[in-house]
Amino acid sequence: MQTEVPSVNGVARPPVKDAVSAGGTSVRATARVRPYVPVELMPTDDPFPASHPYVRRFWVAALGSGAIAELLRLVRAAEKGEEVRLPRHLPQLLRADLVSITSAGIRVSNRIPAVPRELRWRFPPSLAGEHVRWLRDLPSSARREPT
């Protein structure tokens, strides 16, 4: 990793490999160390377990693979009672109502709801048709149409 070094007496110095961040140097946001946060499991009656193929098929199309990979990592950490680094895709997961923030940390469920209507616009027509069939084939006890 290379970072810029602030100028000394108006003479800028070239990047130095593995430089320790000195005051005034810029560090990429992705290079900063993210803090660890506790994750707890919250019970829900959503229809799909986190490991269900529905989650990877449709939620990945709605939010992206990075966000869903982090969601699954959060679920696994909550089941084990471990802390995780602050997720990079936390804003997306919050907007989709897949996680919540508490004073103690992040709450996540190991059961995932159906993709809400406001995110289905990202589905291509073939996937949208497949999604309708998945929801139609759910048992009536699990069928809750999201808003």
Describe the structure.
This protein has two domains: 2-31, no CATH class; 36-136, no CATH class. A hairpin with a 2-residue loop joins β6 (99-102) and β7 (105-108). A four-stranded mixed β-sheet has the order 5-3-7-6. The chain has a two-stranded antiparallel sheet with strand order 1-2. Helices cover 31% and strands 24% of the residues. With 147 residues, the protein is an alpha+beta fold.
Neighbour order of strands in the largest sheet: 5-3-7-6
Query: What gyration radius follows from the Cα positions, in whole Å?
Result: 21 Å
Number of strands: 8
Instruction: Please give the domain count.
Output: 2
Q: Give the topology string: H per helix, E per strand.
A: EEEEHHEHEEEH
Low-confidence stretches: none
Largest sheet: 4 strands, mixed
Task: Offer a few descriptive terms.
147 residues; alpha+beta; 2 domains; 4-stranded mixed sheet; two-stranded antiparallel ribbon; 4 helices
Q: What are the SSEs and their pairings?
A:
Blueprint lengths: L1 E7 L2 E7 L18 E6 L6 E2 L3 H11 L1 H16 L2 E3 L4 H6 L3 E4 L2 E4 L2 E2 L12 H12 L11
Parallel strand pairs: 3-7
Antiparallel strand pairs: 1-2, 3-5, 4-8, 6-7
Helix pairs in contact: 1-2
